[in-house]
Amino acid sequence: MTRKYTEDHEWLEVSGNVATVGITDYAQQQLGDVVFVELPAVGKQVTKGGDAAVVESVKAASEVYSPAAGEVVEVNADLESAPNTVNDDPHGKGWFFKLKLSNPGELDSLMDEAGYKAFVEGLA
Amino acid sequence: MSAETLLTTPLNALHRELGGKMVEFAGYEMPVQYPAGIMAEHLHTRAKAGLFDVSHMGQVKLSGENVAAALETLVPGEIQALKPGRQRYTLFTNEEGGILDDLMVTCFNDHLFLVVNAGCKTQDIEHLRAHLPAGVKLEVMFERALLALQGPAAKDVMGRLGPKGAALTFMGGARVEIGGIWCTVTRSGYTGEDGFEISVEEDKAEALARLLLDQPEVMPIGLGARDSLRLEAGLCLYGHDIDTTTTPIEADLNWAIGKRRREEGGFPGADIILDQLKNGTKRKRVGIRPEGRAPMREHTELTDAAGKPIGEITSGGFGPSVGGPVAMGYVDTALASVGTAITALVRGKPLPAQVASMPFTPHRYHRG
Question: Domain GCVT N-terminal spans what residues (chain B) (predicted)?
């Protein structure tokens, strides 16, 4: 399994043709306490870079973009009752949705872990 | 605005030392939060005591003969009856009945002490200079620091360091020595909690802040929690819940129009404001409780059950003490009674909400 990262601070992990999508630890730190997560409907078609979910902190609402095109096949409904899971375990239990990839080749342009780490360091 | 042009308060270096996340606010570089985060800072203020830097707000001294009567020509509050050592909330109104700013006025023996909003302070000074008679002396003290110590344990801290301050009751003010530093203290704030606002000379601000932060009950609080605390307390934020397009009556601030002023008028927009006081307004500021968990934020459109627009949210977010979303906004007066079911369009989706009474968390002022 490989993990890829976007410049909008989403991660995705691919298993077969299904990718699990979440936001990075850096993203949750920037957001602060997450108080609400709006997940996409299962069956929704999303485009690469298109709106897929919304994550809200005490202060503001932020869009979560889909890192790739595909169909939403599962969402993490636990986040609706425990949105702070996004802060506590962003790369694990805080995942947002699973995507059946329509074009796995799109992922080639995303960053790997080392690339993302360097990207975040460049933002400081 | 670039970082180079931002103004700073006397506590800027301390904010950085404490790990404050600095953002632009009203032309100032201010901490929106510290490492504890908005949620923890908010809850700590309601449980113990929080220290806020509000030095960006404008402090002004007015003195001279008949200064209270002179100020009354610009505000609808009862200022002349204000006794030394007492404070009042009031508003600068314009000829259309709109609100130019909201402010606190404290009466001292020989002067009035005003605290105005950071974003309005330059225009407020121009407004005062243009309209006050030549006999009134205006002393602008924008360099002076202002700290707010808020929360149920604030009185314990003040009792220890400045007992004279702890003897004040809500909306009282006095000169108080805190740890050897002379300050102007009022028992007031912007959180709904008991607490104090402490005006201090610029060069003593950091020493005072460090002394207060050394107390076991006190933690530093940023502007993020300041906003969520005042929202839960149902208090207006200028430029959002009130502005030149809203009147005090629409904003449900009728209590800020002094009794004598209701009969006599004599402030800008009095004809409009007093007519509204008598005959009502088409819209009114109300509290709003979303039924679900989704926060409803500023500019969210509100409709009735049939989908007809009835107003919009002017402040909204998550209330950490409420444990859910809270908001305020303007609705048609016909739909302004508590319990009325309304609909909010959140990202295009109609979500249910109710008109609710404010504050969302009970005020805990020390009225003595």
Answer: 13-259
Which tokens sit at B161? 């360091």
The total number of structural domains in chain B stands at 3
Q: Is A54 on the interface with B (CB under 8 A)?
A: yes
Sheet holding B49-53, edge to edge: B173-178, B181-186, B195-200, B145-150, B49-53, B218-220
B322 in contact with A, Cβ within 8 Å:
no
Residues of chain B contacting A80 with CB distance shorter than 8 Å: 293
* Cβ contact B294–A35 (<8 Å): no
Q: Is B78 annotated as a binding residue?
A: no
Burial class (CB within 10 angstroms; exposed 0-12, middle 13-18, buried 19+) of B274:
buried
Please check whether residue B37 touches A, CB under 8 A. Answer: yes
Answer whether B96's CB lies under 8 Å from B40's CB.
Answer: no
Checking ipTM against 0.95, whether it exceeds it is: no
Q: Which residue of A has its CA nearest to B347?
A: A54
Both tokens of A42, joined, read: 């299962």
Inter-chain CB proximity A56 and B224 less than 8 Å: no
Which run of H or E residues covers position B339?
none
Q: What is the pLDDT of residue A2?
A: 81
Contact B38 A33 (CB under 8 A): yes
- Angstrom distances, CA of residue B191 to CA of A70, B228, B279, B362: 46, 8, 32, 10
- The residue with tokens 């809203």 is B246
- Tell whether A121 is covered by a domain: no
Whether residue B361 lies inside any domain: the answer is no
Q: Are B254 and B261 in contact (CB under 8 A)?
A: no
Say if residue B30's pLDDT is above 60: yes
- One domain, residues B128 and B68: yes
* pLDDT single digits (tens) B139-192: 999 999 999 999 999 999 999 999 999 999 999 999 999 999 999 999 999 999
Q: Which residues of B touch A36 (CB under 8 A)?
A: 293-295, 318, 325
Range of the domain at B107: 59-140
Same domain membership, residue B193 and residue B295: no
Q: State pLDDT tens for residues B314-343.
A: 999 999 999 999 999 999 999 999 999 999
Residue A32 lies in a domain: yes
Burial level of B339, CB count in 10 A (0-12/13-18/19+)? exposed
Task: Give the separation between CA B331 and CA B65, rounded to whole angstroms.
Answer: 43
Cα distance between residue A24 and residue A119, in whole Å: 12
Say which DSSP state B82 is in: P
Which residue range forms the structural domain that includes residue A95?
Answer: 2-106
